[in-house]
Amino acid sequence: MEIRNLTFAYGDKDIFKDFSIYIPEGEITCILGSSGVGKTTLLQMIAGIKKPQFGEIIKNSNQVSYIFQEPRLLPWKTVIENVEFVLLDKMDKGKRRVIAKEMLERVGLGDSLHRFPHELSGGMRQRVSIARAFVIKPEILLLDEPLQGLDVIKRQEIQDLLVSLWETYKPTVVYITHDVEDALAVAYQIIVFAGQPVNVLCHTFIDQPIKERSSSPTYMDAFRTHLMLQMKKSTEIPFDKMMQMKMMQQKMKMA
Ligand SMILES: Nc1ncnc2c1ncn2[C@@H]1O[C@H](COP(=O)(O)OP(=O)(O)OP(=O)(O)O)[C@@H](O)[C@H]1O
């Protein structure tokens, strides 16, 4: 997916100005950045909810699913009905039920099909929203802080579930978070946003397969330290100062 020369402002506040990045297809890309930098705005533009004033987003598909921070389930529908709902115009009732049930079993909710959202824990509700997102076999999956508010064990379980579903369906994933640990747990490419308008402060590629990361803590520590430093920088340095530094770095490279 290519985000090309994007410009977006809320009133006179420029969030993106002539902004371009490339998101590799079929991979997991995390976008890290401090609160208010513009991460959600970018996801909303990718989803087509917001339109950029200039520029374009070139996608290979419009089959997009969005997982939000809060699960956004329909409270009057049961777990299985919440998942079937997104298949309404795609297949008949019998087939919807079978496919929704299979996906709910996959996310570990096979015994909660007929419960209502208020009868579930926060982690279970997020699993329903993950099932709802994957049941349409999205080619693009957008995640906006999906682990917010979950305890450390639940976070890890849901990270593992997301990675396992991604391995099965291989959508192009754009995952936004404030949390370096979330990014290290799931992403092959991590982009740190900073400034206003948004600038890419760093672009990090992790070649280590996700499943091997817990057995190579020293290797991952180097990425952790680097990303923590970048996150610290993103909240400390005014944008024009950052641009000066970048230009100096550029000059030093060329010299
Ligand atoms: N509808 C809106 N009207 C005006 N300003 C907005 C609107 N939505 C967002 N903003 C502002 O635009 C900036 C970017 O918002 P956005 O939600 O994209 O940031 P974010 O990086 O996702 O932040 P967070 O991590 O806190 O969700 C913020 O300063 C926000 O206050």
Automatic annotation (TrEMBL):
One of its GO terms (molecular function) is ATP hydrolysis activity. The keyword Repressor does not apply. It comes from the Bacteria. The keyword Transport applies. InterPro entries: AAA+_ATPase, ABC_transporter-like_ATP-bd, ABC_transporter-like_CS, ABC_transporter_ATP-bind, P-loop_NTPase. Residues 1-220 form the ABC transporter domain. It holds the Pfam family ABC_tran. Keywords: ATP-binding, Nucleotide-binding, Translocase, Transport. SMART domains: AAA. This is ABC transporter ATP-binding protein.
